[in-house]
Design brief:
5 helices, globular, two-stranded antiparallel ribbon, alpha+beta, single chain
Length: 201
């Protein structure tokens, strides 16, 4: 399932003609996420902790996208796997920042209800749209992928710069049978088109 909508940057003004740089937003999800979200509003009003992360901002340091608070870690990025590094550094648990109840089984395994999984997905997608906006406002023109997931034990969010031939995800989102997964891509249409149809790592 996907939803695509074109957006455009403000005109770029200089000594030459005005140039419009097309910007694309794409939302995809697996069947498990689509079944949970259903016809409900896709996003929720962000919690204070998520709003604080938005206020922190996102920066491009060299070749990597990071939360501004982690900019000093960019020099430690694994140059052989920048996508994996970004996903690790940007990752956090949605159940830590969204008001959900995490119960526990006798085995001490955490348990999150379907209703709270829905809440995490909606906050995660809303936060992803804010990350796409922040990246779009950077001086450099780059594309970003945000990954939101929830299951019966927790929820996670992470993002990475979109690079040709690289992905943190497998191609078939429905292969994540125990996860509800939503992917939000945003960036110049040329960057997103360049990776469309390419095999995922």
């Amino acid at each position: 399932m996907s939803r695509d909508s074109p957006h455009r940057h403000p005109p770029v003004r200089g000594g030459g003609p005005v140039v419009q740089a097309p910007h694309v937003l794409s939302v995809r999800m697996n069947d498990a996420a689509a079944g949970t979200l259903g016809p409900r509003p896709l996003v929720a009003e962000l919690t204070p902790r998520l709003r604080a992360l938005v206020a922190e901002g996102v920066v491009l340091r060299g070749e990597v996208l990071v939360f501004a608070g982690h900019a000093d870690r960019a020099d430690t990025a694994d140059r052989t796997d920048l996508t994996g590094w970004e996903c690790t550094v940007s990752s956090f648990h949605l159940d830590d920042v969204v008001p959900v109840r995490v119960g526990h089984l006798d085995s001490r395994q955490p348990v999150v209800s379907e209703a709270d999984q829905l809440l995490m997905l909606r906050h995660g997608v809303g936060f992803a749209l804010e990350i796409v906006r922040l990246v779009r406002e950077l001086p450099e023109s780059v594309a970003v992928r945000c990954i939101v997931s929830a299951n019966s034990t927790n929820g996670t969010f992470r993002f990475h710069r979109i690079r040709s031939g690289e992905s943190w995800l497998q191609a078939d989102l429905d292969g994540y049978r125990s996860e509800k997964v939503v992917v939000v891509d945003g960036g110049p249409s040329s960057a997103l088109n360049a990776v469309a149809g390419q095999p995922r790592a």
